[in-house]
Design brief:
By secondary structure, the protein is an all-alpha fold. The protein has one domain (11-123). 55% of the residues lie in helices and 0% in strands. The chain is built from 5 helices and no strands. It has helices at residues 34-47, 51-55, 66-81, 85-91, 98-123. The radius of gyration is 17 Å and the shape is globular. The termini are far apart. Residues 1-7 and 117-121 have low confidence and may be disordered.
């Protein structure tokens, strides 16, 4: 087996030139469409066989594999491309995995949902 990286076939995710054609909304805190964004993102990730980078099951293969790292960086670049700059600043962390970023986004919206429910309850 050759160690030449150019001899390895590329994963089909590399054929995507613009993720925004599949995930057609930009997620932000002010106009939350989290459930829609989440659904579009998981469908797209499933179609391209990278859902395991989001749900964390791909981490079973380890982070030392260069092909895994490249693919993981590609998927979390999808996240970055489909969220607002405000959210990007909140979730971007150096050397994080797609799973870590995904959980950060998820936590922001789950925490906001609880806070909003409390606020609405108090207003009622």
């Amino acid at each position: 087996m050759s160690s030449d990286p150019t001899s390895t076939p590329l994963h089909r995710t590399y054929s995507i030139s613009n993720i925004k054609t599949d995930i057609i909304i930009i997620l932000d805190l002010q106009n939350s469409k989290y459930s829609t964004w989440h659904e579009l993102f998981t469908i797209t990730a499933s179609c391209y066989s990278v859902l395991n980078h989001i749900d964390g099951t791909s981490q079973l293969f380890g982070h030392n594999n260069q092909a895994w790292k490249r693919l993981d960086y590609l998927v979390h670049s999808w996240i970055y491309a489909t969220i607002s700059s405000e959210l990007l600043v909140m979730v971007m962390k150096c050397k994080s995995t797609t799973r870590q970023i995904w959980v950060s986004v998820e936590n922001l919206f789950n925490d906001n949902k609880q806070a909003r429910a409390v606020q609405l309850g108090e207003e009622f």
